[in-house]
Structure formats: structure tokens, C-alpha cells
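Worked example 4.2. Below are the chains of a multi-component assembly; read each line carefully before continuing.
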Amino acid sequence: MEISKKVEEIAPSGIRAFFDLVLGMKDVISLGVGEPDFVTPWNIRESAIYSIEKGYTSYTSNKGLVELRREISRFLKRRYGLEYDPEEEILVTVGVSEAVDLCMRALLNPGDKILIPEPSYVSYGPVSHLAGAAEMYLHTYRENGFKVAPEEIERSCDKKTRAIILNYPSNPTGTSYTKNELKSLANIFQKQGLVVISDEIYDELTYDFGHTPFPTIPGMKNRTVYLNGFSKAYAMTGWRVGYACGPKDIIAAMTKIHQYTIMCVPIMGQMAAIEALERGSKSVEEMKKEYRRRRDFIVDGLNKIGLDCHTPQGAFYVFPSIKMSKLSSMSFANKLLKKERVAVVPGTAFGPSGEGYVRISYASSMDNLKEALARMERFIRAKS
Amino acid sequence: MDEILEILEKDARTSPEEIAAMTKRSVGAVKGAIKKYERDGVVIKYKAVINKGLIKDAPRGACALIEVNVAPQKNLGFDYVAERIYMFPEVTNCFLISGTYDLLITVDGKDMQEVANFVAAKLSPMEGVRGTVTHFLLRKYKEDGEIFKPHEKEKRLAISY
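Applying the procedure described above to all two chains together yields the following C-alpha cells:
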């Protein structure tokens, strides 16, 4: 059957075959998992079960339960001093993934350009392409910790450049930005008149300094759509609950699309999310502490075995260079999987600038991390 | 609490080298700190939590939670009687608690009879012990934060973005 041109234009993911290989193999230690290794805290699961028992099984308002939107609003105020009106400036979405798609479709016209720092999360490019926009990748480099350089943005902007997507802490590099770094970015965005889509799903997993949400930077709130959710901080990936906050005209436009495509986020997930915001913070602190230790352990271990690895400031990923192996990212991942049964994600899954790197997720038990490091060391020794 | 202790409490097998990497301290500093904790009695011992229910030939054994009512001694409070009780090797836990009785202890024996004999011969007749209530333990669901159930399979996809 003939497929729409827009969809045909999206290149099939070269990484799919590798993923299938991993999924079909037994006894693999996987450092390729993009989700927490904790189960959703029991109080959150229990409250969802209770809501089903009480018969909360209906549709909700398109924007999401007003109680949840109010909780999100209160939480952002308490946590970051951010103020969003729960009635008009918050939309509950099916994870941040849906929110990214809604942003692109609500904001971009055919021919508009959007800047995407790379290596980048896999959906940004294809989703902006589906919205008719031209995606422009901004390469980032190991030398400056995979941070996007303000000059690079300036160089890439022209009259057609409408928006930029930020993702910090980043999947796949774990890179985050300090408040001052964000301020210098903000100056350029202001100057170039860019709208900012800020995906901050890993905000609670920032280890070396406090996380600064982009809309808290002076002058940025009215040009930013702030995206967050429950997947990472509360280990709720499978529940698919996220949210978008922003100026009311953008939220209204996003809601228009959302009401026809999704209608509303499943109510059970929304009930669970309310509990997460009301009582979830102790679990978040414990998780964060555990991840920070694993990060320091894995960065130290990778550098010791000869894989140059910078210390990322957040998320649960490290992005070491595998250039000393003289293999491409894909071939390194393939060989490591076949020889030592350790799965990592080739850096090229996140764009061409990921060549020479792999993404390692430390959302795995310490025992797994230790064993994987030992196997990787053996693999590298055998190669050299 | 020192992070070293938090890590050891979670997994006592973590080596000083690993702890050093996790806490960004030197291996020497970690080793020194652990030595000091051991010497000062902060770290009492290292042991494994074993789910005996899964071992086929494990001795069945019996365990009882026992409420003990104590007459406190002048100038010594409950400590004197508590010590006389917890010094028995059969007593595996001993807590002073608030509420309708004073000490909560656990007693292990090879069977119920042995536990009952201990209560009748040693505990109840002890000077200062005013009364006891014995509850035999039927099943352990959770102990020291660990849930007693077989190892669960990984539920996440082995690889994802």
C-alpha cells in the first residue's frame, strides 16, 4: 500500500536490528535500558489499585484531572518557584513523548526550522519532520561536555528558525547546564526570537548542582514550553503520564490536537501521579543518592579500563568514547554483545555525532555494573 | 550517616575500592574509616540474609516473639533484667518498648518444645520478670527490609531508548 510521503521520508532506524538481536539473546547483561531499575514506589501503585477499586474508570477532562493539574502547579511552585495556572497553562499528556509531538505540531509551520542539539533523544528529529518542519542538528562535543555552544546556535539561526529543543539532563549524554550556562543560552534565544521546548524529564536526577528549569530564567517563561513527567523521578515509565506547561495560547493549541488524538490520559495513571506528587519525594531522594553512587562508580571503572568517559551531571547515562577500540559504535556494540554478552546502545542511535561513543545506562544493579565492567575490560584487553 | 555505612548496610560485600569510586574518596581513607567503625563497634558484623524457607534440608526450627513484663530495679531501671535475659544465646533480639509490656524479645529453638522449655525454666522464674506472653512465629514475610520471596524476573525490556 502507498504510504504517506512524510512517513516515507523518515529514515528507518538503523538500530532496530541491533535491538532485536539484544531482545532475542539470553543471559545478556544489559546496560542499554532507558528506564529506572526501580519499581514504582508501593504507595503510588497502591493508590492506583485503590482508585480502580473505587470505580475511577471514566474519561477525564481533556487537559487531565483538575486535581492533578493543581498538584502539578503546587509542586512546581514549591520545588522551583514556578507559577503555572492549572486551568489554562498545564496539559497532562501521555508521557513527555506525546507532549513533544504536540509542541511541534502546535508551533511549527511547513518550512520552519527547529534546532536540535545532538547527540539527541531519538524522537525529536522525526517528530518535527512529521510536523513539516526542517530539523537542524547542532553538534555537541566531548571536549565541552556535550554542551551546546551559544555561538553555534547563533551561527545556525536564520529568519526561518523558529524553535529550539533543550533536553537536560540529557538522554543520551547525561549532560546538564548550570543556571549561568542557561542564562547565556537564554540571551541568544531572546535575540533570535526562538521558542524553547524544554524537555526536563530527568530534572530530579541532577547530581552536582541544583536543577534550574528553563522557564525560571528571567524573560524565558513566556517563550518556553516546559515538559516533564513521572517516568524517571518516580520510576513510572509504563504509566505514561507527563505534562506540558507554557503560555496559555500554546497550551490551548496543544490541547486542541490532544483532544482529537488522545482524548485524555488514562485515569488510573493520573490518580497514581497525584499520589506521586503528594507523597513521593522520599523515594526520589533515595533513588537519586543510589544513582549518584553508581554514576561515580561506572565513570571511574570505564576510565580505568581505558574508555575515556566524562562525568555527566545527571540522568542515568554515561557516554564514553570507544575510539581507542578503533571500531565504529555499531560494530563495538555488536562485538561486545556477541563476545561478552553485554548490551550497550551505539552512540549513532542518537545521531551521527554519536559516532565513536556508546550510551551506557547505569540504571542497573551494582552487581550487574561490576560484572559488565569486568566483561568490558576483558573485551578491550582481547582487542588490543 | 556516613555514606560508607549506608553502602555497607545495603551490601556488605562492597569492597573498599568500590566504595572509594562511589564516594570519590581514596581507597586508604575508606579502609581507615571502615577499620575505625569496626574497632568502635559501629559495624558489629557482616552477614547474609538467608531465606531458609527456600532451603529443602534446612532445620525447621521454631521462633517466638515474647512480651515480657518487668519490675524495674532501683537505680538500674530495666537494664539489669534486660541484660540477664539477652545474655542467653537463645534470645536473638531484645528491645525495650513503650506500651502495655516492657521488653519484646525473640527466642529461637530447634522446636516449639525447646522454646517452651526456655520460657518455663529460665525466663518466667527470673527475678524481676512479672509475666510473659509467648507468640510463636508462623511465617516470615519480610525481615530487615527484605521481602522473603523467590528472585523475580527482570520485567523491563533489555534495551530501550
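Take a moment to check your reading of the output against the notes. Strands of chain B lie at 62-70, 91-96, 103-109, 129-136, 142-143, 146-147. Residues 68 and 132 of chain B are 5 Å apart (CA to CA).
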